[in-house]
Amino acid sequence: MTAADVPTSAVFTAAVTLAPAEPLHFDLAFTATTQPCPWPKAYGGDLVAQAAAAAMRSVADGKSLHSMHGYFLRPADIGAAVRYEVELLRDGRGYSTRQVRGYQNGKPVYVCLANFAAGEPGGTFEAGPELDLEVPAPEDLPTSAEYLAGRVGGTMTEESRAYWSGGRSFDMRHVPGPLYLAVEGKQTPCQAVWVRPFDRLRPVEGLTDAQRDRAALAYVCDYTVLEPVLRVLGLPWAMPGLVTASLDHAMWFHRPGPVDDWLLYVQEAVAADSGRGLGTGRFFTRDHRHLATVAQEGMIRTV
Q1: pLDDT at position 12, please?
Q2: Are the CB atoms for 56 and 214 separated by under 8 Å?
Q3: pTM for the full predicted model
Q4: What stretches of the chain show up as alpha helix (H) in DSSP?
Q5: What is the pLDDT of residues 173-195, one digit of tens each?
Q6: Which residues contact 164 (CB under 8 A, 6 or more apart)?
């Protein structure tokens, strides 16, 4: 039975389930396992979410993760352990800061700084999800599995079809259309993706539900944040010769909100040149509460 036959969010919760380990370099350490995918190396969102989980497990005074900034240093092996070493850089009354380094095969593969805030009274503002697109309700859009059923083309294999259809823990529905085999819809620098876990998120040992939900946003954001760049350049994922890789990543968590319901992930291409592209994204609830903002630069190479 393939992943697409029984779609589940358990892939994500398995990814962010950490095991305490003896630190070799810094103050605390955890190990986590990268999850299966049909590419040569592990999904970058595994590393972002695992590092976020490691940082959150090092803060015990109730502060919430409000931002993280990281670099992908080397590709990570699939189905293999990554050791996350956490350095306790600062613990203040209002803010705390952590450095997290992920090691595999004795070499660093990911590094990030994560900042935590106690929170305090203040003014509130949130921009809405303005888009030069008509965005139907998620129920009116095809699932990835429905879109891919009976389609063939490019470098897509049965394994990648299953992964796109149901192996990524989240149901993703594109506006104006997916980029799996062709650039569906206009070749514009913006798009939106409705995202929701395939089933209710399971508890994760060592994390509160609110911390798990932040890790879920960190995990799912990497799947599509570079797609507006690919869209405006006319590059579908299955185009022969296309090679992409995440380079650096930044994320800000503005306010808590439900992750088990549909979220609208509004994305925009900012720049593309010299084999790199920068994309941004914002997560909104169905009633337009702005939960988080993402920026990521990636390598985009055609050979």
Answers
A1: 98
A2: yes
A3: 0.95
A4: 10-15, 44-57, 144-148, 158-166, 209-220, 227-233
A5: 999 999 999 998 889 999 999 99
A6: 144, 148, 180
